[in-house]
Specification:
Elements (H helix, E strand, L loop, with lengths): L16 H20 L8 H8 L7 H24 L1 H20 L4 H29 L5 H29 L4 H4 L1 H15 L4 E2 L2 H4 L32 E2 L7 H20 L9 H23 L8 H4 L1 H30 L5 H9 L1 H19 L1 H18 L10 H26 L4 H37 L6 H8 L6 H31 L14
Parallel strand pairs: 1-2
Length: about 550
């Protein structure tokens, strides 16, 4: 095996490790902001509604943020490849902080929802660009370190969000949920402006001029038995292209509109209106029409927001589909396990949260250790090992005894976190290593977009499954929302407990099918060895 050590211990910015550490600190703060704001509002809803009103539309506090983050990911990915990571990250952080300030000043629910969308517009830049910069800053063999750090920050922040929101709402004021973002974000912004310096780069169009059959550089090396390049993996970070291509603003607008309409249909279907109602059918029809328009616009664009090579290359297409399935299966524990723990196991909210949060302990550890596995057997086979184990863990959940003990789902969550850490990180590190700087932002954004979309689809599909099982077991007298609301007034009745157990078991069975789908995609579509670039900073 060739030497896999980086030729220099400096980053591509030409700076020392200390400056890179400051940039990494900024990335971790930015990731914490994006993760916290996806969940922090949940426990403060009663205080917010009591102050502003608008109970009938409060769900848009979450949906609006989620939609804005998801649909902007491809746009920011392309912009970061065109103009560099720093201007996109700075603009996104400023927009996120502006949205936070406006949320704290909101005078009614409509204004708060609108300002949450502004937050989400900035949050999309934070999520995508942070992950891209993480790959830019580190050579291939060191990327598990930064990715495991980001995974830890994301997991802890997402799980801690409801607790932080509840504490601020109870002992201060719900507006502080948004105001605390300002000093944290200001520190991150200062670190980025002060310490992130990008070299000049050639344009994305020129970088693809020498593309091979998969659209990657002809000077690439096979991943080899350790899953790393046989030659130097440049520690390249992003930079400003020498020749800036025209931005495909028409494509950006159509992608945003199409994603917004389709995700709205999925988020609100079965909640605000029945699935087969006129609003639902109209939104799906409009979304499909806009999808056709996206294809037409992007085919004509010189530098499309969603370029065709994202789906023509086997490696990227397989990772996109596999991580879309990951988003789908993650809905089972994150959405349904807390209700199961409270209604079936009769745990208090804090204990129920602990049952869910234990996977934040095993996931980052497994992710950090995954490099020792994929260096031996490759990225794809490591991910296959992880998702295969995850499928078995998810399949075991319906076989838990009723009503069971709290330690039983806790052990399963520990195992699930370990399995998913072994699955996700090798795929992200691997796919980022198959492209150069000028395509890394778009590639990373496509992966995150598919994962986010999978979560949205999963929430809709599994919500319908759970409500269908509950309606059958309770004679059409309940759904998950009514059960969750009833838990606030006291323990669930025996019939309700059994119905919730059956509903969550059905959801976990569906999640195991999603894991099996990801396994099949990787096995049949992904190449056994990822085509890792020789010089990843190029």
């Amino acid at each position: 095996m060739g030497d896999t050590r980086p030729a220099t211990r400096h980053t591509a910015q030409g700076t020392a490790t200390g400056r890179r550490g400051a940039v990494v600190a900024a990335l971790m703060l930015s990731m914490a902001l994006a993760a916290l704001d996806s969940t922090v509002v949940s426990t403060a809803v009663p205080q917010i509604v009591g102050d502003l009103g608008g109970f009938s539309v409060f769900s848009w506090l979450f949906s609006g943020y989620l939609l804005a983050v998801t649909v902007t990911l491809p746009v920011y990915g392309k912009l970061s490849d065109t103009f560099g990571r720093k201007p996109v990250l700075v603009a996104g952080t400023v927009l996120f902080l502006l949205g936070s300030l406006l949320c704290a000043l909101a005078w009614n629910m409509g204004a708060l929802i609108a300002f949450r969308v502004v937050q989400g517009l900035g949050g999309g830049a934070l999520q995508g660009t942070v992950q891209t910069l993480a790959a830019d800053l580190y050579p291939l063999e060191e990327r598990p370190k930064i990715q495991s750090k980001l995974s830890t920050v994301w997991a802890v922040s997402a799980v801690a969000g409801p607790g932080v929101g509840g504490l601020l709402a109870a002992y201060a004021d719900w507006r502080w949920i948004f105001l605390v973002n300002l000093p944290v974000g200001a520190v991150a912004l200062w670190l980025i402006v002060r310490h992130l310096h990008e070299p000049r780069r050639e344009s994305p169009a020129r970088a693809r001029a020498d593309a091979g059959p998969e659209g990657t550089s002809r000077a690439r090396a096979d991943a080899g038995p350790e899953g790393t390049s046989r030659t130097r993996a440049d520690a390249g970070s992003g930079g400003t292209p020498r020749a800036r291509a025209d931005v495909d603003w028409a494509g950006a607008l159509t992608v945003f509109a199409c994603g917004g309409v389709l995700l709205t249909a999925l988020v609100q279907g079965g909640v605000a209106w029945p699935w087969l109602s006129a609003p639902s059918l109209a939104l799906f029809a409009a979304g499909l029409a806009l999808a056709g328009l996206v294809v037409v616009v992007e085919r004509r664009a010189a530098q499309p927001i969603i370029p065709g090579w994202v789906w023509r290359r086997r490696t990227i297409a397989a990772v996109n589909l596999a991580l879309g399935a990951l988003g789908l299966l993650m809905v089972a524990p994150t959405v349904f396990l807390p209700t199961y723990a409270q209604s079936v196991l009769e745990l208090d909210p804090v204990s129920a949260g602990f049952v869910l949060s234990v996977w934040t302990l095993s996931w980052p550890v497994s992710a950090a250790l995954s490099q020792h596995v994929y260096r031996r057997i490759g990225f794809r086979d490591t991910a296959l090992l992880g998702i295969g184990a995850a499928a078995l863990v998810l399949l075991a959940f319906p076989f838990l005894p009723y009503p069971g003990e709290a330690w039983q789902p806790t052990v399963l969550m520990l195992l699930l976190g370990a399995a998913l850490g072994l699955f996700q990180l090798p795929l992200i590190v691997g796919v980022q290593s198959t492209v150069g700087w000028s395509e890394r932002g778009t590639t990373t954004a496509s992966v995150l977009f598919c994962r986010q979309t999978g979560q949205t689809v999963g929430a809709a599909v599994f919500g319908a499954v759970a409500n269908g099982v509950l309606a059958t077991r309770l004679g059409g007298a309940g759904d998950l929302d009514s059960v969750t609301g009833a838990l606030a007034s006291g323990p669930a009745q025996e019939a309700t407990r059994r119905a919730v157990a059956d509903a969550v078991h059905a959801v976990y069975l569906g999640a195991s099918c999603a894991a099996a789908l990801a396994f099949a995609v990787l096995l049949l579509v992904a190449p056994r060895r990822f085509p890792v670039l020789t010089h990843q900073g190029d």
